[in-house]
Amino acid sequence: MNYDPRAPRVPEQPDGAPTTTWDSLAAADSRPLPQFLLDHAQEDMGNAPLDVARYTDEAFFRAECEKMWPNVWQFVARQEEMPEPGDYVLYENAGRSFLVTRQADGSVRAFHNVCLHRGRKLRTSSGYADDFQCPYHGFTWKTDGTLKQIPCRWDFPHLDNVDLSLPEAQAGEWAGYIFIKESEGGPTLAEYLAPLPEQFDRWSHDRAYTTAWVAKVIPANWKACAEAFMEAFHVSTTHPQIMGFTGDVNSKYNLYGDHVNIAITPFGVLSPTLGVSDNEQEIINNFLKYNGRVVTPGTTIDVPEGRTARATMGEFNRRRFADLFGQDLDHASDAEVQDAFTYNIFPNFSPWGGFQPTVVYRWRPWPDVRHTLMEVRLLGRLKPGETAPVPTMKLIEPHESFADHLGQLGVVLEQDMDNLPHVQTGMEASKTKALHLAHYQESRIRHFHRTLDKYLAG
Fold first, then answer.
1. How far is residue 222's CA from residue 362's CA, in Å, rounded to a whole number?
2. Which residue from 58, 56, 60 is spatially nearest to 429, judged by alpha carbons?
3. What is the number of domains present in the chain?
4. What is the number of alpha carbons within 13 Å of residue 55 lying toward its C-beta?
5. Are 30 and 311 in contact (CB under 8 A)?
6. Residue 3 pLDDT
7. Which residues pair with 327 in a beta bridge?
8. Sign (positive/negative) of CA torsion 292, 27, 197, 350?
9. Could you tell me if 274 and 395 lie in one domain?
10. Does the model's pTM come out above 0.90?
């Protein structure tokens, strides 16, 4: 299956594939969809198996830390975490520690969080600072990274001609998201993210703010965690409760360049694995029971005679999200107010698109090859005149559930989390050492590993 932007809107399907595709649903939408969602960006990623050593081998993990992580743009914070000059965010990943700071002119800069005297971390949490003074001996840096003070200056004459500014990483901002890149050179942030900024401009992420932020340490490799959110193939066995309104194997997958891909999973339709149903009311009832993230509990929606659950939910969501966001959404398609537009930006950042409360995932090794800090944010939209509160991450214990903090979304997440420890131990026990992926439905995973290999070869 080799798609390109010139492909027909509803491409011919391989033998045995569902005859209903996301494109055919888009063709029946009550509003026009943007062309970038209708285009096809696929390529043949081959069928070679993956070696489980990618997830279990310490040497492979060290190679990622040395060759990949320093050379990629990493999402580190949202603008509402550091709104004022002097605010800073502590960002740590893969053995590195950074202070990402708001400057007096409103720009953002990032510095290595290490005292140049005896190596102590300057800060161990996010916050506000007039300067960065080391708690060990008092060496002090301004928030622009330049040296401010050396205690007992007379005893360091050998440093008179040494530049003692804090080493700096590249920093960039897009739509309220803040990124850093440790190494110099390489693609600009805009080049790295393309075509994401152009596509997301439609969905007003510049007005977004964090409404919830929950994290949990998962006993599995960071890539295994991320890949659980790159395909909808697992829905029928991992999330059976959502099959009544989720077109799991109707999903569409697009690949853009090296760093960006997307899965589009339709809601408001029955999973093809359940067969065919003409009970549209039952579909929307299931949607409200098991999804409807911001629907008031107990809400009911009646499907009018002759209409589909998908169109009915689209009309309902246009009204509720317009009220929630303070924005006219009459132009928004049914797809954009209910489907899962799950983007992935290599290596570990996954923001959802669409005109609905946004889900954002981030995965970081925490701290080794077998553990991951899984973070989930929900983003709302500011109405005119509103100011975003400063959010904090809630780190929950391993025995706690995302469901206790994120409702029905958390229930689905916990089902994924239940798989992952056994994925990790299963790969470590594997006799064949090979993972055999689907050609199309798991093409984003192949795309991810091809990009990873490019960095490891550099």
1. 10
2. 56
3. 2
4. 28
5. yes
6. 27
7. none
8. positive
9. yes
10. yes
β-strand pairing of 108-112 with 168-174:
antiparallel
Spell out the residues 6+ positions from residue 371 whose beta carbon is closer than 8 angstroms to its own: 217, 218, 219, 220, 365
| Contacts for 323-330: CB closer than 8 Å, 24+ residues apart | 324/294, 324/357, 324/380, 324/381, 325/204, 325/207, 325/355, 325/380, 325/381, 325/383, 326/381, 326/383, 326/384, 327/204, 327/381, 329/355
Cα 38 from Cα 29, distance rounded (Å): 12
Q: Are the CB atoms for 262 and 344 separated by under 8 Å?
A: yes
Residues 210 and 178 in one domain: no
Residue where a domain terminates, one of 153, 186, 219:
186
- 182's enclosing H/E stretch is none
Which residue in 357, 392, 413 sits closest to 77, CA to CA?
Answer: 392
Cα 219 from Cα 224, distance rounded (Å): 10
Alpha-carbon gap, residue 108 to 7, rounded angstroms: 42
Token pair recorded at residue 13:
């399907």
Which CATH number covers residue 166?
A: 2.102.10.10
Task: Answer whether residue 14 is part of any domain.
Answer: no
* Residues belonging to the chain: 458
Residue 350 and residue 412 in one domain? yes
* 430 vs 55: CA distance, rounded Å: 12
Q: What is the DSSP letter of 207?
A: G
The residue type found at 128 is: Y
Asked if 308 contacts 327 with a C-beta cutoff of 8 angstroms, the reply is no
Q: C-alpha 387: how far from its chain's center?
A: 24
Domain extent for 138: 74-186
Pairing state of beta strands 340-345 and 260-265?
antiparallel
CATH number, residue 325:
3.90.380
- Say what the pLDDT of residue 17 is: 61
pLDDT at 298: 83
Q: Show Cβ contacts of residue 402 under 8 Å, excluding neighbours closer than 6 positions.
A: 214, 216, 376, 396, 409, 410, 411, 413, 414, 417
- pLDDT value for 239: 96
* Ranges of the chain whose pLDDT falls below 50: 1-12
Among 448, 217, 456, 219, residue whose Cα is nearest residue 345: 448
Structure tokens at 103: 């400057």
* Structural tokens at position 82: 């550091």
